[in-house]
Amino acid sequence: MHRQSAPRMTPNPLLGVFFHWLGGLASASFYVPFRGVRGWAWETYWLVGGVFSWLVAPFLIASLLVHDVSGILRESPLSTVFWCYLFGVLWGFGGLTFGLTMRYLGMSLGMAVALGYCAAFGTLMPPLVRGEFASKILGTSSGVLILVGVGICVCGIAVAGLAGISKEREFSPDARTAVIKEFNLKKGLLVATFCGIMSACFSYGLAAGGPVREIAARHGAPELWQGLPILILVLAGGFTTNVVWCLILHIRNRTGSQYFQSKSAPLAANYLLCVVAGFTWYFQFFFYTMGEAQMGTYRFSSWTLHMASIMIFGTLWGLALKEWKGAGRRTMRLLALSVAVLVASTLVVGYGNYLSVGSPERPQTTRAKL
Question: Which of 64, 219, 274, 290 pairs with 228 at a CA distance of 20 to 30 A?
Answer without folding.
Answer: 274
